[in-house]
Amino acid sequence: MSADEDARWLDWVTKQFESIAGDDKEIDLDEFKTALKVKEQSFFAERFFALFDSDGSSSISLDELLEALDLLIHGSETDKLRFLFQVYDVDEGSIDPDELRTVLKSCLRESAISLPEEKLDDLTLALFESADKDNSGAITFEELKAELEDFPEVMENLTIAANWLKPPEADQKKRQTPRYLTRAYWHNNSRKLLFLCGYACLSLALFVGAVLQHRHGSACYMLAKGCGQCLNFNCTFVMVLMLRRCLTWLRATWVVRVLPLDQNILLHQIVGYAILGYTLVHTTAHIFNFQLSEHSGFSVWEYLLTTRPGIGWVKGTASVTGVVLQVVICLMGICSSTFVRRSGHFEVFYWSHLSYVWVWSLLMVHCANFWKWFVVPGLLFLLEKIIGIAVSRMGGLYIVEVNLLPSKVTHLVIKRPQFFQFKPGDYVYINIPVIAKYEWHPFTISSAPEQSDSLWLHIRSMGQWTNRLYEYFRQPQSPAPSPRRLAASLRSRQVSAKFGENHRFCNIKCYVDGPYGTPTRQIFASEHAVLIGAGIGITPFASILQSIYRRRKQNCPNCSYSWCENIKDSEMKLRKQVDFIWINRDQKSFEWFVSLLTKLEMDQADGEPERFLEMHMYMTSALCKNDMKAIGLQMALDLLAKKEKRDSITGLRTRTQPGRPEWAKVFQKISEENKGKVHVFYCGSPALAKVIKAQCEHFGFNFYKENF
């Protein structure tokens, strides 16, 4: 840190210490644990406290804290390593196997990793044998220092991860050029920005045209008419953006390279908010105009709430229908907010959004010319709905198998009808009458199109409907066993091998509307694809990875020999590499698709001189390698993975990395590989999407986000 940063940090630490220490100006062990946000029984908190308490008074003064932190921040590499050695060396001499096992067990607890006792013994033995160079039965400081030289990334920023000692992020960030003003942003978002410019110009032209047409009226009247004309357009265009079948068809044409079809949801939201704005201005302008017209014998309230003034082409109902429309549109806007949709109240959004039928009906009565704007898009919308109902009701669809996976994920296996065709990464709307008779919810298909007998959905419990689904199948009395089972064809591909209360066969009626295309269809036009899934966001990529593998795998017709080769498919440019990045919070979440990933790894290793698929796993609850509470564990995991050629956390050959990806380094490495134009596909939380998109703009990668 610079001198100024050092001074600010010192001031910040002093204030934090004073807020924790209280009147006695000393921090005891309990206060220290609270500040570090650790569990009651924390080996590391107790060891840090003992080392910080240099005078053995069972409390830490400000001077003692600053002295210890000064060593960790400004000390030499040897000073930091000696502190680490003292943390591990409880009896003050050398580290014996029992001490190391205690340390590693504590590391596992701090990182929320659960491993069998036998695996803990293996980790202890791997690290101890590697570090104990002279086979003396104990690890000395010099031996630990020599061992750490094989892990240079550990020393980059050695820390105890005390967040309460870090200054606010805003004080540390340097001023940067706003992202929206960079050349990279405008280049990578050119289709969307041009489309929005065209939309804005058309709206302006409609507004000006309506104002000029009614220029003999008052200013308020002209403003109301201008907004009304814009509403005619927007209230039909908002529907065009949700013609999912038409958009899915257009994705297979050249139009996808010109129009931002993959961002139809975002554009739908923008137009929706524009409608809300236009209605507010339209209504307000009319109210002011009515006030100016009071001399005609009617009050403002009579203009607004009665048909006596005779305004409108259907028995003077323009004002009354306008007030109702204003209320309904405002309610739709509120119920469509991110807070409502993402806070477990999706049903509020779903049911309130169905009022679009009333909005269009009232607009027909309210405005004499609205039907001219509505007729063509309305017919397309009606046709899509009829096709959707017909497709969903054709053929008996049944949920034939259910797996309840960790973190409240429900894996549904649906008997796939012969006519149902889809592309990898597509999604469907599903209705399960026993859960909710009239509700339809969208979920990505997680099975491959080549899997002809079944359809997979992985559903994370995040709202009322998804929680009801999980709880329904968790009940021991339901559902009843089905005599028709797909056990023979599904058992070999089952994601979860666990049978019993979390796995059952059934025969439950359901309806599926779709499939609908997503941005992930562009993967097959990529040269170098990067797939990033956060949590359950892996589902579209599970389908894609299976499909790619099945297309690449070749089998000898005369024997059981199989091999992989480059895809000979006119639809696919994907030749060089796929980087798959999966980020999970906890260890159990990897169980959702670990069997599939293991199979892909094994099949790839059997027949390919050059890896086509590179996997990168991240566990965010695990402490990073440069954290003192995790260094020993991460070293042991690395050593045991090299020895067993298998990761101890997931069982994959790919080593699970702790913490969050450093996206700048990840994308820098991908850029340096120079394996063709890079396309990044993401499915997960919107917050992480913004971070990844910004990095893609910096490196010139194309970015696609799953939206539905």
UniProtKB/TrEMBL annotation:
<dbReference type="InterPro" id="IPR017938">
    <property type="entry name" value="Riboflavin_synthase-like_b-brl"/>
</dbReference>
<feature type="transmembrane region" description="Helical">
    <location>
        <begin position="348"/>
        <end position="365"/>
    </location>
</feature>
<dbReference type="InterPro" id="IPR039261">
    <property type="entry name" value="FNR_nucleotide-bd"/>
</dbReference>
<dbReference type="InterPro" id="IPR011992">
    <property type="entry name" value="EF-hand-dom_pair"/>
</dbReference>
<dbReference type="GO" id="GO:0006952">
    <property type="term" value="P:defense response"/>
</dbReference>
<dbReference type="InterPro" id="IPR013112">
    <property type="entry name" value="FAD-bd_8"/>
</dbReference>
<dbReference type="GO" id="GO:0043020">
    <property type="term" value="C:NADPH oxidase complex"/>
</dbReference>
<keyword id="KW-0106">Calcium</keyword>
<keyword id="KW-0479">Metal-binding</keyword>
<keyword id="KW-0521">NADP</keyword>
<feature type="transmembrane region" description="Helical">
    <location>
        <begin position="312"/>
        <end position="336"/>
    </location>
</feature>
<feature type="domain" description="EF-hand">
    <location>
        <begin position="119"/>
        <end position="154"/>
    </location>
</feature>
<dbReference type="InterPro" id="IPR013121">
    <property type="entry name" value="Fe_red_NAD-bd_6"/>
</dbReference>
<keyword id="KW-0274">FAD</keyword>
<dbReference type="InterPro" id="IPR018247">
    <property type="entry name" value="EF_Hand_1_Ca_BS"/>
</dbReference>
<dbReference type="Pfam" id="PF01794">
    <property type="entry name" value="Ferric_reduct"/>
</dbReference>
<keyword id="KW-1133">Transmembrane helix</keyword>
<feature type="transmembrane region" description="Helical">
    <location>
        <begin position="193"/>
        <end position="211"/>
    </location>
</feature>
<feature type="domain" description="EF-hand">
    <location>
        <begin position="40"/>
        <end position="75"/>
    </location>
</feature>
<dbReference type="InterPro" id="IPR002048">
    <property type="entry name" value="EF_hand_dom"/>
</dbReference>
<feature type="transmembrane region" description="Helical">
    <location>
        <begin position="231"/>
        <end position="250"/>
    </location>
</feature>
<keyword id="KW-0285">Flavoprotein</keyword>
<keyword id="KW-0812">Transmembrane</keyword>
<feature type="transmembrane region" description="Helical">
    <location>
        <begin position="270"/>
        <end position="292"/>
    </location>
</feature>
<protein>
    <submittedName>
        <fullName>NADPH oxidase 5</fullName>
    </submittedName>
</protein>
<dbReference type="Pfam" id="PF08022">
    <property type="entry name" value="FAD_binding_8"/>
</dbReference>
<keyword id="KW-0560">Oxidoreductase</keyword>
<dbReference type="GO" id="GO:0005509">
    <property type="term" value="F:calcium ion binding"/>
</dbReference>
<dbReference type="InterPro" id="IPR050369">
    <property type="entry name" value="RBOH/FRE"/>
</dbReference>
<dbReference type="Pfam" id="PF08030">
    <property type="entry name" value="NAD_binding_6"/>
</dbReference>
<dbReference type="InterPro" id="IPR013130">
    <property type="entry name" value="Fe3_Rdtase_TM_dom"/>
</dbReference>
<dbReference type="GO" id="GO:0016175">
    <property type="term" value="F:superoxide-generating NAD(P)H oxidase activity"/>
</dbReference>
<keyword id="KW-0472">Membrane</keyword>
<dbReference type="Pfam" id="PF13499">
    <property type="entry name" value="EF-hand_7"/>
</dbReference>
<dbReference type="InterPro" id="IPR017927">
    <property type="entry name" value="FAD-bd_FR_type"/>
</dbReference>
<feature type="domain" description="FAD-binding FR-type">
    <location>
        <begin position="392"/>
        <end position="522"/>
    </location>
</feature>
<dbReference type="GO" id="GO:0042554">
    <property type="term" value="P:superoxide anion generation"/>
</dbReference>
<feature type="domain" description="EF-hand">
    <location>
        <begin position="76"/>
        <end position="110"/>
    </location>
</feature>
